[in-house]
Design brief:
By secondary structure, the protein is an all-alpha fold. It starts with a helix and ends with a helix. The chain contains 18 helices and no strands. Helices cover 81% and strands 0% of the residues.
Length: 456
């Protein structure tokens, strides 16, 4: 009986994980097509990043709803809705003949992924025993982390030999496979909660996240001040409503937990690195090294696979030996690898990029999923759904913010000064990487203080 439950749990995680996998796959698969799409749709570097940014923005807006939806709708019905939205998004982008239609399809896919991600982790947190939680979360992260490994190569092969449209077409059978597994394995529990949605908080979140991303995307223009004001207004609405609501959309009180807050921010910096490098490397290879979209994807696959495979292994290390070793060692390796790649950029070719990427992805593999596990372990069972929503919401927003910020920095350096496009792209990439590196160094100091004081 116990073995049957574990098998069904694994299949349920797999079904929701496949959608999350597909979502992350096309997220990174599309980055290698940016130079091609810039020419086809006649858009700039700053605008083309909206293919990723609007997708992550929709996820970031959808995920906060997950805590409410999980109380209001059965897991199976949520799964079916997400599956349908993903299917429609794939069809829309396959037939897209304009930039606007392409973005519409990305929004539908973002809606689906915004439901699938928290659904997968909710199943793990609800049905997996506590002594296996690290391993199961590691497996969940593995499902979504393998996608960045395959995505750039997958997109590069299709864009180089066929058309970027096929990136979406070939995922349709996988989504149908996910549907079949989900119909069998997703729990069919009854819903008895009569929770009501806090619409005003939702409006605040939309204004806050949209304004922040538009601000980062236009930070070198005067209109950015209007977006900054929009962000502040959205934050005020969300904060004021949440503080005065009996059933807030997200429990802001969780941020008062020092350990939860630190591990959350560490997790978000890792996500920023993953999405930032997915933009930097393909553009660097194609613009500076004059490589192809296929080569851009191929260069990233070794490191991404290593990072993904280490996720469940690092979870098992955490379950067996505790969090201190994998997290501190992982962050230290990440800092050394990322810093080395940042300094060497412009002086190395494809082989050097692969080595640097592999090195820091070993560190990411050791600490990334464990930061989430330890962060969630700081919360009571009643706050697990809210913590899950916070992690997944800010994970997607940080990814979108990373893409927008990196694209803006590179675009600014390209368009200002007397440097040639290759030298400007290299310098812009190094500046963007340095900003992220400083943030990770601060996280390492915070984690070192907590583990040294034996607060864990």
């Amino acid at each position: 009986m116990q073995q049957t439950k574990e098998i069904k749990l694994g299949l349920a995680v797999l079904a929701s994980g496949i959608m999350s996998f597909c979502g992350v796959l096309i997220e990174t698969a599309m980055t290698v097509t940016f130079p091609t799409l810039m020419t086809e749709f006649n858009v700039s570097t700053a605008n083309i990043q909206w293919i990723t940014t609007i997708y992550l923005l929709v996820i970031a807006i959808t995920v906060p709803l997950s805590s409410f939806l999980l109380k209001k709708i059965t897991l199976l019905h949520l799964f079916l809705f997400a599956n349908l939205m993903f299917f429609l998004g794939l069809i829309t982008d396959f037939i897209a003949n304009s930039f606007a239609i392409l973005l519409l399809g990305r929004c539908l896919q973002g809606l689906a992924t915004g439901i699938a991600l928290p659904l997968m982790f909710h199943i793990i947190l609800t049905y997996a025993p506590i002594h296996k939680r690290g391993t199961m979360i590691g497996l969940g992260v593995l499902i979504t982390s393998v996608a960045p490994a395959i995505g750039p190569t997958y997109g590069g092969i299709l864009a180089t030999n066929y058309s970027w449209h096929y990136i979406f077409l070939l995922l349709i059978p996988i989504i149908i496979f996910s549907l079949l597994i989900g119909l069998i394995a997703i729990p069919k529990q009854k819903i008895q909660n009569q929770a009501k949605l806090d619409w005003l908080s939702m409006v605040g979140i939309i204004l806050m996240f949209s304004g922040a991303l538009c601000f980062l995307s236009n930070i070198d223009q005067l209109i950015s001040l209007a977006y900054l004001l929009m962000t502040i207004v959205g934050f005020f609405i969300f904060y004021h409503t949440s503080k005065n609501s009996k059933v807030p959309l997200i429990q802001l009180s969780l941020f008062l937990n020092k350990k939860f807050r630190l591990f959350l921010f560490g997790f978000l910096i890792c996500q920023t690195m993953l999405l930032g490098i997915s933009f930097i490397v393909p553009n660097y290879i194609q613009i500076v090294l004059k490589g192809t979209a296929f080569e851009s994807g191929l260069v990233m696959i070794p490191g991404a696979i290593i990072g993904a495979l280490l996720a469940p292994l690092s979870g098992r290390i955490l379950d067996t030996y505790g969090a201190k070793r994998p997290i501190l060692i992982g962050i230290a390796i990440t800092i050394l690898g990322w810093g080395g790649l940042c300094i060497a950029l412009g002086k190395i070719g494809l082989t050097g990029i692969i080595i640097g990427h592999v090195f820091y992805m070993i560190g990411i593999g050791l600490c990334y999923s464990n930061l989430m596990t330890v962060g969630m372990n700081q919360l009571s069972k009643n706050n697990q759904n809210d913590g899950n929503a916070i992690f997944n919401t800010l994970q997607q927003f940080s990814g979108a913010a990373a893409t927008a910020l990196v694209a803006t920095i590179i675009n600014f350096v390209q368009n200002n000064g007397s440097l040639e496009i290759q030298a400007a792209t290299t310098l812009g990439s190094q500046i963007a990487m340095l900003v992220i590196l400083i943030s990770m160094c601060l996280i390492f100091i915070g984690c070192l203080r907590i583990f040294t004081k034996k607060i864990d």
